[in-house]
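From the shared-data thread, chain only:
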Amino acid sequence: MSERLLKLLGAEEGIVCAVGAGGKKTTLYALAAAHPGRVAMTATVFMTAFSRRLGAYRLITEEPDLPATVAATSGHRRVAYARPSDKPGRVAGVPPEVIGDCHRQGAFDLTLVKADGARMRAIKAPATDEPVIPDTATTVLCIVSAAAIGEPLDDRIAHRPERIEAVTGLTAGEAITPAAVGRLLGADNGSLQGIPECARVIAIINAVDDADRRQAAREAAHAALEHGAHRIERVVLTSHREGDDPVIEAIERA
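Structure, as tokens:
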């Protein structure tokens, strides 16, 4: 399971960023658990505090020389680092331009980065200043939840629904279709926005928890590969509800 998950999500090595909604942190935690080497986890945006289940040494600091401070954690296989926040239960993001230095000086095999927020919604489209991805990113995971498919487009299910309208052509209250999810994942002003040209792009449709969602997710995946053919390498359907292997299916670009 571990090798398959890491390979399909382009997370065997390098700096892997997660954007979108409906499973970023869950996916990053699964990758951290699967990787056998030295792993860092961080964020470029505010996020909930690192869970103890990550099993990582937690470094929350405003040290000006962050790469050197991170490098001093060499005795720990997993390290979670961020800046302190005055919001209870939250940590603040790290400037994206220093993450590459932290990765290199810390001698990490893999660095995992949460690169935007979604307020616990199942689907989102980015604002003009999102996401916050380091130029040194090697893989970007664009995530959406299958739970959004069939639901009306509103702020109960979606973060920035007005942006989703602009990207997909849906209108407020209209049911979110697999085709619309595919357009969002494959759009330059949607899930692909702000991704460095040098980075691999892999889409994830998460929460594929039953047969109906799997069929809808497949339709969305094929639409995403059609719309984002110039960037998206594959679409991976996942479910973290039960079992050790979250991968349901991988749909490759032809």
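The mean pLDDT is 96.
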